[in-house]
Design brief:
alpha+beta; 2 domains
Length: 150
């Protein structure tokens, strides 16, 4: 079965994914052991959380992993452009799990791979999930700066 995540997931990445899940479901008032409510909430993602616009992003399967960066850069640029216009976005990797269904409905070519989806609309500012705030890794944990000493 396809997974958009590496198998096994590296421990540092797994910890971040787990941390997001814990914070996300806690913010929504869904107990970690409540599989039915968690599945229902995951299903809301598949209807773009009721946003007025849902986007599916694809790239060519034959491209190298370095070329996939272009898709990410395009997605980020779109998200930033939407943000400055007051439109909220939510990138969603969960759509990658449904490649064959999406390919059939969107008449994708055999070399087109679903990379992700994104919900677009105006944020519900009263929704707690829109204010949950994820901790961020300090830049020192993500990058090494050589030759930039003070």
């Amino acid at each position: 079965m396809f997974s958009p995540f590496p198998q096994p997931t590296p421990p540092d990445c797994a910890a971040r994914v787990d941390g997001f899940g814990r914070r996300y479901y806690q913010t929504l008032g869904i107990d970690r052991a409540d599989a039915v409510s968690r599945a229902r909430q995951s299903g809301r993602g598949l209807v773009f959380f009721d946003a007025p616009v849902g986007l599916i992003f694809t790239t060519q399967a034959s491209l190298t992993r370095h070329s996939w960066l272009d898709c990410g850069l395009f997605l980020q640029s779109l998200m930033l452009a939407a943000h400055v216009r007051g439109v909220a976005t939510c990138p969603q990797v969960q759509f990658a799990r449904f490649q064959s269904i999406i390919a059939e409905h969107l008449a994708l070519g055999p070399d087109e791979v679903v990379t992700c989806g994104a919900s677009c609309g105006y944020a519900d500012e009263d929704a707690a999930v829109n204010h949950m705030g994820m901790p961020r890794e300090p830049v020192e944990g993500l990058a090494r700066w050589l030759g930039f000493d003070d």
